[in-house]
Amino acid sequence: MPIDSSRYANSNSSNYSHSYANKYQDIAPTTHSSWSSNPSGSSSSWSSDKRLSNTKSRDLNAELHLAGAALNPRTPKAQLVNVNQPKDLGILDKPTSLNKFVLTQGGQMVVGNIDKSVPTKWLSHPAIAELGAGPGQSQHVVSAGYIKKDFMGNTRLSHTSGHYLPTKDDLKPAQQHLKDMGVTSTKNDCSIV
Q: Does some domain include residue 149?
């Protein structure tokens, strides 16, 4: 489900430690589920104890600023989508953009779609987690990388993230999330250009 970028402009609160979390807090989900069961109610086959570490956490405020520029509703160059059902993956159909994803311990998958006309670093994986899943969620990422549909319509995941440095094995939670929605995916390397 797309996150309404028009809501970004006027929200204001001081409950969180950084300004962009304050600005975007009203779009953050208010409930957090546990990975003891997946969204469909059956048990997961992987552990939620393993989190990926943001190797560039000191840059988060600057990255949130860049993401704010990319998500500016006046001249949007990016979009965030919470992936809860197969139709939410329609965001992958834009031919002039790249798609990054994060999956949090709370079971929230967020896809950040960014236009190829701007640098992809304008929408970093931690910024996607903070703005799409909620403040503080960049510290609770279990899977991250790029996602796309190939020319046959198959969903492909790549474990490319300079912040979280995931392995192919770290894509299993994302694959399970997609599988729970009825979407099969591959962990093959996918071209991200």
A: yes
180: exposed, middle or buried (Cβ count in 10 Å: 0-12, 13-18, 19+) = middle
- DSSP letter at 129 equals I
In a domain, 169, yes or no: yes
Tokens of 35: 């990975």
Q: Is residue 142, in this structure, part of any structural domain at all?
A: yes
Distance CA 89, CA 147 (A): 10
- Predicted pLDDT at 1: 52
Amino acid residing at 34 = S
Tell me the mean pLDDT in the region 76-100: 93
Residue 151 lies in a domain: yes
Quote the domain boundaries for residue 110.
Answer: 5-9+50-186
Q: 54-84: per-residue pLDDT in tens?
A: 999 999 999 999 999 999 999 999 999 999 9
DSSP 2: B
Quick one: three-class SS letters along 20-89? HHHHHHHHCCCCCCCCCCCCCCCCCCCCCCCCCCCCCHHHHHHHHHHHHHHCCCCCCCEEEEECCCHHHH
Structural domains of the chain, count: 1
- Give strand ranges (E) for 89-161: 97-104, 109-115, 141-149, 155-158
